Amino acid sequence: MYNKIKSTAAFLKDKISAQPETAIILGTGLGRLVEHITGAQAVDYGEIPDFPVSTVEGHCGRLIFGQLNGAKVVAMQGRFHHYEGYDMQQVTFPVRVFKELGVKRLFVSNASGGLNPDFEIGDLMIISDHINLMPNPLIGPNDQRLGVRFPDMSKPYDHDFMELAESIGRERGIVLKRGVYVGTTGPTFETPAEYRFFRIIGGDAVGMSTVPEVIVARHGGLPTFGISIITDLGFEGKIQEVSHADVQIEGAKAEAKMTTLISEMLARL
Ligand code: HPA
Fold this sequence. Notes:
Blueprint (H helix, E strand, L loop, with lengths): L1 H14 L6 E5 L11 E7 L17 E7 L2 E7 L10 H13 L4 E10 L9 E9 L26 H14 L3 E8 L8 H9 L4 E3 L3 H9 L4 E10 L10 H10 L1 H14 L1
Helix pairs in contact: 1-2, 2-5, 3-7
The structure holds hypoxanthine.
């Protein structure tokens, strides 16, 4: 894998004019953040050696290099999910490549179902911690050049980033919740009993992404910031039928707040 990471990063370095400092993985309904990237250089996943290709509806597949509010970024428009059939090495390969490109931090966004009864549809939740219920992407032989065998996970999400987000939220009138994200494989949404279980074990929101990428970022020593849009509710009395279309619609509604928050954060790092 190490050689593949090196060669994919070399391919990208050759194409781009400026080295990115922040990698941003854009989740469901948030792809339009890229419209705010200036001096954008797009590279389709299909062109990139060893990159998987995204299949899920609503996710285009390309990397966008450029500037967001003055910060040098690479944005992933379309991520790889385990439920699409990619193995965890494929799901997390882009994060390895970003690290090799010299990125200093990873920002991740996603859509999730709310488990905390204080949450409402459309809320933004800063991910303060997670519970991994997916296969761990680090299972298998460990390559010391990429990170240690047994990575510490006492601070999976960077505290300074959380505080920065909250102070921007206060200034800009963007309400931010904090909570624990439960990562499941999907692709089924939860049964009522599963939502109840995820709440009991300490979750505030549940979704099908993010955790593998964050684990690999931490393995490689990258500080991370994660934010989740609550697109549906999974607690007693509020559970309704949920579809991918609903998730995308609610995701799109939160787009403006998300864009403001992320681009303000980048300007102040
Ligand atoms: N469950 C799992 N994943 C999700 C949900 C949900 O309720 N909403 C958006 N992604």
